[in-house]
Amino acid sequence: MVLTKRIIPCLDVIQGKVVKGTKFINLKDVGDAVELAKLYDEQGADELVFLDITASSDKRKIIIDLVEKTGDQVFIPFTVGGGLRTVKDIKEILRAGADKISLNTAAVQNPDLIKEGAKIFGSQCIVTAIDAKRVYVNSSPEAKNKILIEVNNKLCWWEVYINGGRTPTGRDAILWGKEATNLGSGEILLTSMDCDGTKNGYDLELTRIFSKKLDVPIIASGGAGNPQHIIDVFKLGKADAALAASIFHYNEYSIEFVKNECKKAGISMRL
Questions:
Q1: Which of 41, 46, 52, 131 is catalytic?
Q2: Any catalytic annotation for residue 12?
Q3: What is the mean pLDDT of each run of 10 residues along the chain (271 residues)?
Q4: How many CB atoms lie within 10 A of CB 255?
Q5: Which of 46, 75, 145, 170 would bridge with 6, disulfide CB 3.0–4.6 Å?
Q6: Beta strands in the chain (DSSP E)
Q7: Which of 70, 92, 95, 71 is nearest to 83 (CA)?
């Protein structure tokens, strides 16, 4: 059986408003979170991802009432992340209407949270979000205990960032992805910080190596500017799902149009 690929609009939220930036900075308000979520559901999105992007850095909990309102309006799988630190937090969000939760900062700081969450709620509910940035090196000894890849005749590895892309960790993203899946994460939401908001296309090398080395679905994020970029991340990056924000928020392309273009390119989609 051929599994259909998924198109997932992403709602990065600050205080109930959806924002979008470039490489995690210069954030601009693009609309109301609940209204956009409802619109994308009606347009045929396969899933939604809702990220409260300052909850961790502000050391506060996610806005539960916003999750409840969104959950009342959408009828497709709905993932929520940002500021989740405990099993109790996860339980609250799932009860509020989310189908899955996304862990980023808290999982890096306390990997057992993935294990506990997967044990109680099931791996299918636990998505590990990884924000990764390229680090170029001249030789292997410079990057001890890192997975090095040659890209454009240069060696690089990808570093994990937390707190909404504000804090480097020194950790290798691929190794962290493997650890997260071994702990029970059922899916990886993989964002290229280098490509985020640029509309120049996804980081295909990063996505491809994650898809090759990990045995769970990979959601590619960061860089979608047109339908061809999404086709490329499915065909060349081997992603299972494509997350996009700008092209949908600014009405550059409809979800239906993107899906039809993917279908024309021979990609199995739910229309």
A1: 131
A2: yes
A3: 87 76 58 86 94 63 79 92 92 94 96 98 98 90 85 92 92 98 98 93 97 97 96 98 91 94 96 84
A4: 21
A5: 46
A6: 6-14, 17-22, 25-32, 48-52, 78-81, 100-103, 126-137, 149-151, 154-162, 167-172, 187-192, 218-221, 241-244
A7: 92
Mapped onto helix, strand or coil, the DSSP state of residue 41 is: helix
Query: 77, 114 in Cβ contact below 8 A?
Result: no
Q: Name residue, tokens 């071994």.
A: 182
CA distance 157 to 146: 7
207 three-state secondary structure: helix
pTM of the model: 0.92
Can 131 be counted among the known catalytic residues? yes
CA separation, residue 22 to residues 9, 19, 27, 188, 264 (Å): 16, 11, 7, 21, 30
